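I have been asked to look over a protein record a colleague put together. This is what I was given:
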Amino acid sequence: MNNSEALPQTFDLVIKNIHLLTMDKKTHQQAYGLITDAAIAVLNGEISWLGQAADLPDIPCKNVVDGEGQFLSPGLIDCHTHLVFAGSRADEFEKRLNGVSYKEIAEQGGGILSTVNATRDASFEELLVLAQKRVKTLMSEGVTCIEIKSGYGLNTETEVKMLKVAQALEQSFPVEIRRTFLGAHAVPPEFKNNPDGYIDYLITDTLPTLVEQDLVDAVDGFCENIGFSMEQIKKLFDAAKKYNLPVKLHAEQLSDSGGTGLVVDMEGLSADHVEYLSEKDCIKLSHSVTIPVLLPGAFHSLSETQLPPIKILRELNVPMAIGSDYNPGSSPLCSLKLMLSLACTHFKLTPEESLLGVTCNAAKALGLKNVGALKVGYRADFCLWDIKHPAELSYTFGINPLTRMWIRGQTCFL
Protein backbone atom coordinates (compact mmCIF):
# COMPACT_ATOMS: atom_id res chain seq x y z
CA MET A 1 0.00 0.00 0.00
CA ASN A 2 1.22 3.49 -0.79
CA ASN A 3 -0.22 6.67 0.71
CA SER A 4 2.17 9.16 -0.81
CA GLU A 5 0.90 11.80 -3.22
CA ALA A 6 4.00 12.75 -5.21
CA LEU A 7 7.06 10.51 -5.39
CA PRO A 8 10.58 12.01 -5.29
CA GLN A 9 13.37 11.56 -7.82
CA THR A 10 15.42 9.47 -5.37
CA PHE A 11 15.35 7.94 -1.89
CA ASP A 12 18.06 8.22 0.79
CA LEU A 13 17.18 4.89 2.40
CA VAL A 14 15.03 1.89 1.58
CA ILE A 15 14.47 -0.99 4.00
CA LYS A 16 13.13 -4.13 2.32
CA ASN A 17 12.07 -7.58 3.47
CA ILE A 18 10.32 -6.41 6.63
CA HIS A 19 6.96 -6.48 8.35
CA LEU A 20 5.78 -3.00 9.33
CA LEU A 21 4.17 -2.30 12.70
CA THR A 22 2.83 1.07 11.56
CA MET A 23 0.69 1.65 14.70
CA ASP A 24 -1.57 3.53 12.29
CA LYS A 25 -4.88 1.76 12.84
CA LYS A 26 -6.90 4.36 10.94
CA THR A 27 -5.15 3.52 7.69
CA HIS A 28 -4.18 -0.10 8.28
CA GLN A 29 -6.96 -2.04 9.97
CA GLN A 30 -4.98 -5.07 11.16
CA ALA A 31 -3.64 -5.31 14.71
CA TYR A 32 -0.59 -3.07 15.21
CA GLY A 33 -1.40 -1.48 11.83
CA LEU A 34 0.53 -4.42 10.39
CA ILE A 35 1.75 -4.57 6.78
CA THR A 36 3.45 -7.87 5.99
CA ASP A 37 6.08 -8.41 3.29
CA ALA A 38 6.68 -4.68 3.22
CA ALA A 39 9.22 -1.98 2.47
CA ILE A 40 9.74 1.59 3.61
CA ALA A 41 11.59 4.51 1.99
CA VAL A 42 13.14 7.61 3.50
CA LEU A 43 14.09 11.01 2.11
CA ASN A 44 15.54 13.93 4.11
CA GLY A 45 14.91 12.22 7.42
CA GLU A 46 11.21 11.58 6.78
CA ILE A 47 9.16 8.64 5.58
CA SER A 48 8.61 9.15 1.86
CA TRP A 49 6.88 5.88 0.98
CA LEU A 50 5.71 2.67 2.67
CA GLY A 51 3.67 -0.34 1.65
CA GLN A 52 3.88 -3.82 0.18
CA ALA A 53 7.37 -4.55 -1.12
CA ALA A 54 5.88 -5.62 -4.45
CA ASP A 55 4.58 -2.05 -4.91
CA LEU A 56 7.88 -0.31 -4.09
CA PRO A 57 8.48 2.34 -6.79
CA ASP A 58 11.46 1.80 -9.05
CA ILE A 59 13.37 4.89 -7.90
CA PRO A 60 17.13 5.18 -7.35
CA CYS A 61 18.23 4.83 -3.73
CA LYS A 62 21.51 5.66 -1.99
CA ASN A 63 21.22 2.95 0.68
CA VAL A 64 19.20 -0.28 0.56
CA VAL A 65 18.93 -2.42 3.70
CA ASP A 66 17.70 -6.02 3.88
CA GLY A 67 15.52 -6.35 6.99
CA GLU A 68 15.82 -10.14 6.86
CA GLY A 69 12.14 -10.69 7.56
CA GLN A 70 12.21 -8.83 10.87
CA PHE A 71 9.63 -6.39 12.26
CA LEU A 72 10.05 -2.63 11.95
CA SER A 73 8.25 -0.37 14.43
CA PRO A 74 8.31 3.34 15.14
CA GLY A 75 10.99 4.43 17.58
CA LEU A 76 9.82 4.07 21.16
CA ILE A 77 8.92 7.17 23.17
CA ASP A 78 9.42 7.45 26.94
CA CYS A 79 6.95 10.22 27.77
CA HIS A 80 7.63 10.42 31.53
CA THR A 81 11.09 10.32 33.14
CA HIS A 82 13.02 12.05 35.93
CA LEU A 83 16.41 10.85 34.74
CA VAL A 84 18.51 13.90 35.69
CA PHE A 85 19.37 13.43 39.36
CA ALA A 86 22.17 12.56 41.76
CA GLY A 87 22.26 10.24 44.75
CA SER A 88 20.58 6.95 45.58
CA ARG A 89 17.53 5.99 47.62
CA ALA A 90 18.23 2.30 48.01
CA ASP A 91 17.86 2.75 51.79
CA GLU A 92 14.26 3.86 51.27
CA PHE A 93 13.63 0.79 49.14
CA GLU A 94 14.75 -1.26 52.10
CA LYS A 95 12.54 0.75 54.48
CA ARG A 96 9.48 0.17 52.33
CA LEU A 97 10.17 -3.57 52.38
CA ASN A 98 10.24 -3.30 56.16
CA GLY A 99 6.77 -1.75 56.23
CA VAL A 100 7.35 2.00 56.00
CA SER A 101 5.04 3.63 53.43
CA TYR A 102 6.10 6.04 50.67
CA LYS A 103 4.05 8.75 52.41
CA GLU A 104 5.73 8.12 55.78
CA ILE A 105 9.18 8.28 54.22
CA ALA A 106 8.32 11.63 52.62
CA GLU A 107 6.97 12.97 55.92
CA GLN A 108 10.23 11.93 57.63
CA GLY A 109 12.25 14.14 55.29
CA GLY A 110 13.16 11.41 52.85
CA GLY A 111 11.69 10.81 49.44
CA ILE A 112 12.00 13.61 46.95
CA LEU A 113 13.85 15.92 49.35
CA SER A 114 16.75 13.51 49.82
CA THR A 115 17.29 13.53 46.05
CA VAL A 116 16.93 17.32 46.04
CA ASN A 117 19.86 17.65 48.45
CA ALA A 118 22.06 15.34 46.36
CA THR A 119 21.12 17.06 43.11
CA ARG A 120 21.74 20.53 44.50
CA ASP A 121 25.21 19.42 45.62
CA ALA A 122 26.12 17.81 42.28
CA SER A 123 27.88 19.81 39.58
CA PHE A 124 26.55 20.17 36.05
CA GLU A 125 29.27 17.83 34.81
CA GLU A 126 28.44 15.18 37.43
CA LEU A 127 24.76 15.28 36.55
CA LEU A 128 25.53 15.11 32.84
CA VAL A 129 27.73 12.00 33.18
CA LEU A 130 25.05 10.23 35.24
CA ALA A 131 22.28 11.20 32.83
CA GLN A 132 24.28 10.15 29.75
CA LYS A 133 24.48 6.57 31.07
CA ARG A 134 20.71 6.51 31.54
CA VAL A 135 19.98 7.86 28.07
CA LYS A 136 22.27 5.23 26.55
CA THR A 137 20.39 2.55 28.47
CA LEU A 138 17.01 3.73 27.17
CA MET A 139 18.34 4.04 23.63
CA SER A 140 19.69 0.49 23.76
CA GLU A 141 16.07 -0.71 23.91
CA GLY A 142 14.83 1.39 21.01
CA VAL A 143 13.91 4.70 22.65
CA THR A 144 14.25 7.60 20.21
CA CYS A 145 12.42 10.34 22.16
CA ILE A 146 12.59 11.04 25.90
CA GLU A 147 10.77 13.47 28.15
CA ILE A 148 12.92 14.68 31.06
CA LYS A 149 11.50 16.52 34.05
CA SER A 150 13.25 18.83 36.45
CA GLY A 151 11.94 18.93 40.02
CA TYR A 152 14.95 17.82 42.07
CA GLY A 153 16.22 21.35 42.46
CA LEU A 154 13.24 23.24 43.91
CA ASN A 155 15.19 26.46 43.55
CA THR A 156 15.85 28.48 40.44
CA GLU A 157 19.58 27.75 40.27
CA THR A 158 19.24 23.96 40.38
CA GLU A 159 16.15 23.77 38.17
CA VAL A 160 18.12 25.70 35.54
CA LYS A 161 21.07 23.33 36.01
CA MET A 162 18.90 20.25 35.55
CA LEU A 163 17.22 21.52 32.41
CA LYS A 164 20.56 22.61 30.95
CA VAL A 165 21.73 19.02 31.47
CA ALA A 166 18.65 17.84 29.56
CA GLN A 167 19.51 20.34 26.82
CA ALA A 168 23.08 19.06 26.68
CA LEU A 169 21.87 15.48 26.33
CA GLU A 170 20.10 16.37 23.09
CA GLN A 171 23.35 17.84 21.83
CA SER A 172 25.21 14.63 22.77
CA PHE A 173 22.74 12.09 21.39
CA PRO A 174 20.47 11.89 18.33
CA VAL A 175 17.37 11.34 20.49
CA GLU A 176 14.75 14.05 20.83
CA ILE A 177 14.54 15.44 24.37
CA ARG A 178 11.44 17.20 25.67
CA ARG A 179 12.15 19.32 28.77
CA THR A 180 9.45 19.64 31.43
CA PHE A 181 9.57 22.04 34.39
CA LEU A 182 8.44 20.22 37.54
CA GLY A 183 9.22 22.83 40.15
CA ALA A 184 5.96 21.99 41.92
CA HIS A 185 7.27 18.54 42.83
CA ALA A 186 7.60 19.10 46.57
CA VAL A 187 7.90 21.99 49.03
CA PRO A 188 11.60 22.74 49.65
CA PRO A 189 13.02 23.36 53.14
CA GLU A 190 13.27 27.08 52.46
CA PHE A 191 9.48 27.25 52.20
CA LYS A 192 8.55 24.70 54.86
CA ASN A 193 4.93 25.25 55.92
CA ASN A 194 4.56 27.88 53.19
CA PRO A 195 3.59 26.09 49.97
CA ASP A 196 1.69 29.13 48.70
CA GLY A 197 4.83 31.22 49.03
CA TYR A 198 6.76 28.57 47.11
CA ILE A 199 4.26 28.56 44.25
CA ASP A 200 4.58 32.36 44.09
CA TYR A 201 8.38 31.97 43.95
CA LEU A 202 8.10 29.53 41.05
CA ILE A 203 5.81 31.92 39.19
CA THR A 204 7.79 35.10 39.75
CA ASP A 205 11.36 33.80 39.73
CA THR A 206 11.97 30.28 38.41
CA LEU A 207 9.52 30.04 35.51
CA PRO A 208 10.44 33.41 33.94
CA THR A 209 14.14 32.49 34.17
CA LEU A 210 13.58 29.17 32.41
CA VAL A 211 11.50 30.79 29.68
CA GLU A 212 14.09 33.50 29.14
CA GLN A 213 16.77 30.84 28.65
CA ASP A 214 14.51 28.70 26.41
CA LEU A 215 14.84 25.64 28.64
CA VAL A 216 11.26 24.47 29.02
CA ASP A 217 8.75 22.76 26.72
CA ALA A 218 5.98 22.08 29.27
CA VAL A 219 5.06 22.62 32.92
CA ASP A 220 4.16 19.81 35.34
CA GLY A 221 3.13 19.53 38.99
CA PHE A 222 2.40 17.00 41.72
CA CYS A 223 -1.25 17.36 42.72
CA GLU A 224 -1.64 15.11 45.75
CA ASN A 225 -2.24 15.08 49.48
CA ILE A 226 1.55 15.08 50.02
CA GLY A 227 2.10 17.48 47.14
CA PHE A 228 0.16 20.57 46.08
CA SER A 229 -3.53 21.42 46.05
CA MET A 230 -5.58 21.96 42.91
CA GLU A 231 -5.74 25.67 43.69
CA GLN A 232 -1.97 25.93 43.93
CA ILE A 233 -1.42 23.94 40.75
CA LYS A 234 -4.00 26.00 38.86
CA LYS A 235 -2.21 29.18 39.83
CA LEU A 236 1.05 27.79 38.43
CA PHE A 237 -0.65 26.50 35.29
CA ASP A 238 -2.29 29.88 34.69
CA ALA A 239 1.20 31.38 34.73
CA ALA A 240 2.43 28.71 32.31
CA LYS A 241 -0.39 29.50 29.91
CA LYS A 242 0.72 33.13 29.79
CA TYR A 243 3.95 31.86 28.26
CA ASN A 244 2.01 29.56 25.89
CA LEU A 245 3.50 26.52 27.62
CA PRO A 246 1.44 23.32 27.65
CA VAL A 247 0.75 21.70 31.01
CA LYS A 248 0.65 18.15 32.36
CA LEU A 249 0.17 16.74 35.83
CA HIS A 250 1.06 13.98 38.27
CA ALA A 251 -2.51 13.14 39.22
CA GLU A 252 -4.49 10.56 41.17
CA GLN A 253 -1.46 8.50 42.22
CA LEU A 254 -2.28 8.20 45.91
CA SER A 255 -5.83 9.56 46.11
CA ASP A 256 -8.67 10.97 44.01
CA SER A 257 -7.54 14.58 44.36
CA GLY A 258 -9.27 15.88 41.22
CA GLY A 259 -6.06 16.78 39.41
CA THR A 260 -7.08 15.01 36.22
CA GLY A 261 -10.22 17.11 35.95
CA LEU A 262 -8.10 20.23 36.36
CA VAL A 263 -5.62 19.33 33.65
CA VAL A 264 -8.46 18.36 31.31
CA ASP A 265 -10.16 21.71 31.92
CA MET A 266 -6.88 23.43 31.05
CA GLU A 267 -6.51 21.33 27.85
CA GLY A 268 -3.32 19.83 29.21
CA LEU A 269 -1.18 17.23 27.49
CA SER A 270 -1.44 14.44 30.05
CA ALA A 271 -2.52 13.21 33.46
CA ASP A 272 0.09 10.77 34.76
CA HIS A 273 -0.28 7.84 37.22
CA VAL A 274 -4.13 7.91 37.49
CA GLU A 275 -4.47 4.85 39.75
CA TYR A 276 -7.27 6.58 41.68
CA LEU A 277 -8.93 8.08 38.62
CA SER A 278 -12.71 8.32 39.04
CA GLU A 279 -15.24 7.23 36.46
CA LYS A 280 -16.38 10.84 36.18
CA ASP A 281 -12.88 11.94 35.21
CA CYS A 282 -12.52 8.99 32.83
CA ILE A 283 -15.52 10.40 31.00
CA LYS A 284 -13.96 13.87 31.01
CA LEU A 285 -10.79 12.41 29.50
CA SER A 286 -12.80 10.76 26.75
CA HIS A 287 -14.02 14.18 25.60
CA SER A 288 -10.62 15.87 25.81
CA VAL A 289 -7.18 16.05 24.22
CA THR A 290 -5.53 15.02 27.51
CA ILE A 291 -3.84 11.60 27.54
CA PRO A 292 -3.68 9.40 30.66
CA VAL A 293 -0.13 8.13 31.15
CA LEU A 294 0.19 4.80 32.95
CA LEU A 295 3.31 4.29 35.04
CA PRO A 296 3.51 0.59 35.88
CA GLY A 297 7.08 0.90 37.15
CA ALA A 298 6.00 3.03 40.12
CA PHE A 299 3.01 0.75 40.74
CA HIS A 300 5.37 -2.23 40.76
CA SER A 301 8.17 -0.68 42.83
CA LEU A 302 5.81 0.68 45.49
CA SER A 303 3.87 -2.61 45.68
CA GLU A 304 0.65 -0.70 45.08
CA THR A 305 -2.71 -2.45 44.86
CA GLN A 306 -4.99 0.28 43.47
CA LEU A 307 -5.19 -0.38 39.72
CA PRO A 308 -5.92 2.35 37.18
CA PRO A 309 -9.45 2.03 35.72
CA ILE A 310 -8.22 0.35 32.54
CA LYS A 311 -11.55 -1.28 31.70
CA ILE A 312 -13.44 2.02 31.82
CA LEU A 313 -10.77 3.86 29.83
CA ARG A 314 -10.82 1.09 27.23
CA GLU A 315 -14.62 1.12 26.97
CA LEU A 316 -14.51 4.88 26.46
CA ASN A 317 -11.81 4.55 23.76
CA VAL A 318 -9.42 6.74 25.68
CA PRO A 319 -5.84 6.45 24.30
CA MET A 320 -3.46 5.31 27.04
CA ALA A 321 0.25 6.12 27.06
CA ILE A 322 2.97 4.41 29.09
CA GLY A 323 6.13 5.89 30.60
CA SER A 324 8.99 4.45 32.61
CA ASP A 325 8.78 7.16 35.31
CA TYR A 326 12.47 6.43 35.79
CA ASN A 327 13.48 8.08 39.06
CA PRO A 328 15.53 7.18 42.14
CA GLY A 329 12.61 6.71 44.51
CA SER A 330 9.35 5.27 43.25
CA SER A 331 10.49 3.78 39.91
CA PRO A 332 14.25 3.08 39.77
CA LEU A 333 13.69 1.07 36.58
CA CYS A 334 15.50 2.48 33.55
CA SER A 335 13.76 0.30 30.95
CA LEU A 336 10.81 1.17 28.74
CA LYS A 337 10.87 -2.41 27.46
CA LEU A 338 10.18 -3.60 31.02
CA MET A 339 7.22 -1.23 31.18
CA LEU A 340 5.62 -3.04 28.23
CA SER A 341 5.73 -6.26 30.22
CA LEU A 342 4.56 -4.68 33.50
CA ALA A 343 1.67 -2.89 31.78
CA CYS A 344 0.44 -6.26 30.53
CA THR A 345 1.02 -8.27 33.70
CA HIS A 346 -0.09 -5.66 36.27
CA PHE A 347 -2.63 -3.58 34.35
CA LYS A 348 -3.82 -6.28 31.93
CA LEU A 349 -3.20 -4.22 28.82
CA THR A 350 -2.92 -6.21 25.64
CA PRO A 351 0.51 -6.29 23.93
CA GLU A 352 -0.93 -4.09 21.19
CA GLU A 353 -2.23 -1.54 23.72
CA SER A 354 1.17 -1.53 25.39
CA LEU A 355 3.04 -0.88 22.15
CA LEU A 356 0.55 1.86 21.27
CA GLY A 357 1.31 3.29 24.71
CA VAL A 358 5.00 3.81 23.94
CA THR A 359 4.55 4.94 20.33
CA CYS A 360 1.62 6.97 18.99
CA ASN A 361 -0.11 7.54 22.35
CA ALA A 362 3.16 8.57 24.01
CA ALA A 363 3.65 11.07 21.18
CA LYS A 364 0.22 12.54 21.93
CA ALA A 365 1.13 12.81 25.62
CA LEU A 366 4.06 15.03 24.60
CA GLY A 367 2.13 17.01 22.02
CA LEU A 368 4.27 15.65 19.16
CA LYS A 369 2.67 15.41 15.72
CA ASN A 370 5.22 13.66 13.47
CA VAL A 371 6.50 10.69 15.49
CA GLY A 372 5.06 7.56 17.05
CA ALA A 373 3.75 5.90 13.87
CA LEU A 374 4.96 4.85 10.45
CA LYS A 375 3.23 7.25 8.09
CA VAL A 376 4.32 9.24 5.06
CA GLY A 377 5.66 12.61 6.25
CA TYR A 378 6.50 11.32 9.72
CA ARG A 379 10.06 11.40 11.02
CA ALA A 380 12.09 8.34 10.08
CA ASP A 381 12.61 6.99 13.61
CA PHE A 382 12.59 3.19 13.38
CA CYS A 383 13.40 0.09 15.40
CA LEU A 384 14.14 -3.26 13.76
CA TRP A 385 13.23 -6.21 15.98
CA ASP A 386 14.33 -9.84 15.62
CA ILE A 387 10.97 -11.30 16.64
CA LYS A 388 8.41 -13.67 15.15
CA HIS A 389 5.31 -11.93 16.57
CA PRO A 390 4.76 -8.35 17.79
CA ALA A 391 3.55 -9.61 21.20
CA GLU A 392 7.12 -10.71 21.94
CA LEU A 393 7.97 -7.07 22.72
CA SER A 394 5.73 -7.32 25.81
CA TYR A 395 6.01 -11.04 26.41
CA THR A 396 9.76 -11.33 26.89
CA PHE A 397 12.23 -9.42 29.01
CA GLY A 398 15.96 -9.77 29.59
CA ILE A 399 16.92 -10.60 26.01
CA ASN A 400 16.96 -7.50 23.84
CA PRO A 401 15.56 -8.23 20.34
CA LEU A 402 16.56 -4.82 18.95
CA THR A 403 18.92 -5.35 16.02
CA ARG A 404 19.12 -1.88 14.51
CA MET A 405 17.75 1.62 15.04
CA TRP A 406 17.42 4.73 12.89
CA ILE A 407 16.71 8.29 14.01
CA ARG A 408 15.79 10.79 11.30
CA GLY A 409 16.80 8.12 8.81
CA GLN A 410 20.31 7.79 10.17
CA THR A 411 21.61 4.56 11.73
CA CYS A 412 22.30 4.80 15.44
CA PHE A 413 25.30 2.78 16.62
CA LEU A 414 24.73 1.70 20.22
About this structure: The radius of gyration is 21 Å. The mean pLDDT is 95. The longest helix spans residues 195-212. The chain is about 35% helix and 20% strand.
